[in-house]
Amino acid sequence: MKNGLKKGNSTTRMLLAPYSLWSVIFIVVPLLFIAYYAFTDNNFNFTLENITRFFTATSQLTADDGTVTEVRTYLMIFMRSLKLAIISTVICLGMGYPLAYIMARAEEKTQRIMMTLIMIPMWMNFLIRTYAWMTILQDTGIFNSILGVFGIDPVHIIGTEGAVVIGMVYDYFPYMVLPIYSIMAKMDIRLIEAAHDLGCNSLATLRRVIFPLSLPGVMSGITMVLIPSISTFYISQKLGNGKFFLIGDAIEGQYVANNLHFAAAIAFILMIILLVCMGIANYFTSRRVYGG
Amino acid sequence: MKKSASRIYTAIIFAFLFAPIIILLIFSFNEGKSLSVFTGFSLKWYKELFNDANTLEALKNSLVLAFSATAISVFLGTMASVGINKLRSRWYRTAIDTVTNIPMTNPDIITGISLMLMFVFVGRLFGASTSLNFLTMLIAHVTFCLPYVILQVLPKLQQMDKSLAEAAMDLGCPPLRAFFKVELPEIMPGIITGAIMAFTMSLDDFVISYFTSGNGFQTLPIRIYGMTKKTVTPKMYALATIIFFVTLTLLLINNIVDNEDSQKLKEAKRIQKGEKPEGDYNPRKRNMALALAGVLVVALTFGAFSGSSASKELNVYNWGEYISDGSEGSFDTIKEFEKWYEENYGEKITVNYDTFASNEDMYNKISSGAVSYDIIIPSDYMIARMASEDMLLPIDFENIPNYQYIGEDFKGLYYDPDNQYTVPYTYGVVGVIYDANVVDKADIGGWDLLWNEKYANKIVQFNNSRDAFGTAMFKLGIDVNTTDTALWDKAHEEMIKQRPLVYSFVMDEIFNIMQSGEASIGAYYAGDYFTMMEDQADDVDLQFYYPEHTNMFIDAMCIPSCAQNKELAEIFINYMLGEEAAVANAEYTYYASPNRLVYENETYIEDMGEETVEILYPEFEDFAAEYNRYAYRTLSTDMLSYLNSLWETVKVN
Q1: What is the 3-state secondary structure (H, E, C) of A44-89?
Q2: Share above pLDDT 90 across residues of chain A, in percent, rounded to a whole number
């Protein structure tokens, strides 16, 4: 018996060895490189300058009425990115949750077709899709032409925060729907029936049974939308008319300017902030799922 | 009632999801070049697409990469999932879960940069001439695809009845066989979903590829991102449309296959209940269908462009859309060169042609030591910087007899005073483009048109620091190469003043924005003005003028010090200066040529039209003096980072 257990262990190790090795070399070590670059200068001497620059660099904002306020550049950029990312995530959740619910309750064949339809746009690279949105949202674009047909005045969308949010919602929507859907599809239908039998109406069932059960899917959906939205640089360039400088733009800008060390520093700080946020979120949701 | 409500909701969501796809579809049939002005129905971009070896090559690369990354990540991921499922050590389990989560909870840009930093570092350590290549991109893609595979496969394993495999083994089945016979069929749906997700992620990715791409292997998104000199054409939309329909077909096939799968499940349940199975379900059928679909795509992609295997290779690194490439019946420079070389030297040769989006983009790749090219075509200020950093090789002009046709004006300029490193390719002058239907004649003439409050929100500005600040400095009469930070601050003030008037910060987006009348005023290159004019909307009348003092640029062919085949590079440069290639490139790019064989060529002047030539080749009393004074020069690292922080505050506002 003891022998058998040992044998099982060695197979497990053999199965895990390639993946563990891969993860260490291509996931963990590269992150150490980010840290290494973040804390060194161009000659690879230790420095804290890159890190302090992130927190202390200031710039002057001029409002339309000419008043000037001084802000911390990168902290402000980060807050702006966070704001847009949170708005996009909330919209994705609001739009995606009902869809995932509808999908999970549809016939099996319909489920598969819907899933396929959600994924197809992603096969065209997101650069091309974002370009197409430019055509739609321009002042003289498709959307405003359609409004014009109905006699509605054109709406200025492109170059506003709204356009950036639309781009983010569009590009990352599937990442919200898929994890929620896959949890809901697996949900035990008897639980819902039991809730109904016990006198819950639909809304109460949703709130007290379905939603708590789907929380892990919601959490991974939120993560998978929030993370790419916060760090995007292409969407803000194309749909924000280059006017919404986000943290991703800052990193890319420093990379293009060949300031690899400062780019690494911004990336490093962003990574730490996100890890802490995710850690906190996971802590609370896992307590709710298992403890509540 | 409820059902119809959910139907309407679903319909609205899918309308949103497919709106851009429909736009792609419509504009892929546009007769004109524009992505915002539809001028008529035409199939020409599909024809163009199939004649465009570079784009097809990029498509092939994208597919090869996606297939390989999927195969490897499915294999590794499934193996790992089986291992994780068997794992008893809590500590190991937590560690593995955490690491698996990293690529998903880490922004792409961090994953991309971190891998790039490591590859470059390791490449330098081993003195490799090219550390970024297909392999590094593959590694990067496998790395971010793996978690998706594990996430799909592991739950299936956990749901599975463990006693099944144990029973098989008790009955004498060896473990490996038990896995293939019992476990694998059970988790197959998870593996297939995982594979589809991995494939999708790989095709959709741009950011990670951007940082890890290298020599001779550029994928579609890298090409598209590099199309900054002109702009994305409907050709890319045609490509997307084709991908759309191929995908649709493939996934439908997969769905039919999946249907059989669920039939099998139902049958299995019937057997469990002791009922007789009906129908003859053949599990092999589905694997065959899947394999067939895969093989079909691979065969199609490879068959379409049978690769030539020549011993000699020339690696060229140029701006996107910056060479006559055979589109719209033009001269296919690269192909013709390969043919010409074989005829004259009796040897086959392959030209690997890669593109970059900006001088800085190119400089980063080359200076990282991660790539190796034989020819690059940077702009003047970048040439000066690279020459001062010993990144360029002196050219042996004995091998370039056609250099004699380069106009005297273009020799001995500041970036290469002793004519050692460069052979000029194109030059251009910045002017102001405006829509005569919007802008009053009285307001034109100077730089201050870009600051005219009358046209608030109709003005576009460059989306790069040097060119944008340049417009302010020309307006104020400041030396664009000054080292006095106070003067830069003054220009910065001017930029802040302009900022509320600016509709958009643009690079190649300017083409569509000006053509459609979204914006009416912008500074850009004369050559691009003509490209825009070709496809302007009916109610737009684009005009052009040169302000009194303005920036000039020269892009020149150089041989970087990482070149592997210098002599071949010189032969190529000489070929580029030949009449046929030079005229074709000048007509394609619409920029002015420093080559006498071009600007004195009568068919060229006729093709372009005399008025066009007049604007493209403005007269200068003393070109060299004017150029040396107004062209952008390399700034010191300190100045550059000062400028960069000024620029960030302009953008942040």
Answers
A1: CCECCHHHHHHHHCEEEEECCCCCEEEEEHHHHHHHHHHHHHHHHH
A2: 43
- Determine contact: B261 vs chain A, CB below 8 A: no
A140 contacts B517? CB cut-off 8 A: yes
Measured between CA atoms, the residue of chain A closest to residue B466 is A257
- One DSSP character per residue, B83-127 reads HHHH---HHHHHHHHHHHHHHHHS-HHHHHHHHHHHHHHHHHHTT
Residue of A nearest to B141 (CA): A26
B564 interface with A at CB cutoff 8 Å: no
Class of A73-291 per CATH?
mainly alpha
Better pLDDT: A5 or B500? B500
What's the confidence (pLDDT) of residue B281?
43
Q: Considering CB atoms only, which of B17, B21, B496 is closest to A173?
A: B17
SS3 A221: helix
> How many Cβ pairs within 8 Å bridge chains A and B?
295
Out of B24, B114, B142, whose CB is closest to A128? B24
- The domain segmentation of chain A, as residue ranges, is 73-291
Report percent pLDDT > 70 for chain A. 94
Domain boundaries, chain B: 20-51+237-307, 53-232, 312-422+564-618, 428-553+643-652
Identify the CATH assignment for B53-232 out of 1.10.3720.10, 2.40.50.140, 3.30.1180.10, 2.60.40.420: 1.10.3720.10
> B83 in contact with A at a CB cutoff of 8 Å?
yes
Would you identify the CATH topology of the domain B312-422+564-618?
A: D-Maltodextrin-Binding Protein; domain 2 (3.40.190)
B428-553+643-652 homologous superfamily: Periplasmic binding protein-like II (3.40.190.10)
Q: What is the mean pLDDT of residues A152-164?
A: 90
How far, in Å, CA of B276 to CA of B271, rounded?
A: 6
- The whole-number pLDDT of residue B282 equals 47
Mean pLDDT by 10 residues, chain B (653 residues): 84 94 92 84 91 87 91 94 88 88 88 92 79 88 94 87 80 81 85 89 91 86 85 88 84 67 59 50 50 55 48 90 88 94 93 91 88 94 94 96 96 95 96 96 94 95 93 96 95 94 91 91 94 89 94 96 94 97 95 96 93 92 92 90 89 82
A170-179, A215-224, B85-94, B178-187: range with highest mean pLDDT = A170-179
> B53-232 and B312-422+564-618 share one CATH topology?
no
Contact (CB<8Å) A125/B204? yes
Q: Which residues pair with B318 in a beta bridge?
A: B355
**What would the DSSP string read from start to end of B113-166?**
HHHHHHHHHHHHHTT-S--SSHHHHHHHHHHHHHHHHHHHHHHHHHHS-HHHHH
A287 has pLDDT over 60: no
Distance (Å, whole) CA A148 – CA B552: 42
